């Protein structure tokens, strides 16, 4: 159960992270947003990123083996990175129609999945 909760929290966290890091590129289509300076955009992204931490910190605390969770630190990081790329890929496909995934991107994702496999191998 702690493993599942950790992964759910990491997915939510990474959704906010992706929105904070890349969402402003899509928001620029809104006229009012284009009037904002870089400092305002950074503050908005920082505000969104706050929610990333609200979910990321508990995910790591719950999932970490030394706190009674199922994952060691390396496993937590590998899981987080794969979730980041999955969320990013979904975000890109849904919101940025001009971006294309090519075979080399898929191969890269396969290698990341292999990284998860090897991180969990005893």
TrEMBL record:
Keywords: Membrane, Transmembrane, Transmembrane helix. It holds the Pfam family DMT_6. The chain crosses the membrane at residues 36-55, 76-96, 102-120. Coiled coil: none annotated. It comes from the Bacteria. This is DMT family protein. It comes from Flavobacterium alkalisoli. The lineage of its organism: Bacteria, Pseudomonadati, Bacteroidota, Flavobacteriia, Flavobacteriales.
């Amino acid at each position: 159960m702690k493993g599942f909760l950790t992964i759910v929290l990491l997915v939510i966290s990474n959704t906010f992270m992706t929105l904070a890091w890349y969402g402003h590129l899509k928001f620029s289509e809104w006229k009012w947003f284009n009037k904002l300076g870089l400092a305002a955009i950074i503050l908005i992204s920082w505000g969104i990123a706050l929610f990333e931490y609200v979910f990321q910190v508990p995910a790591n605390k719950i999932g970490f083996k030394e706190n009674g969770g199922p994952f060691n630190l390396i496993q937590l990081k590998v899981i987080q990175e794969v979730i980041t790329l999955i969320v990013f890929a979904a975000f890109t496909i849904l919101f940025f129609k001009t971006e294309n995934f090519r075979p080399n991107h898929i191969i890269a994702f396969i290698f990341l999945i292999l990284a998860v496999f090897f991180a969990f191998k005893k």
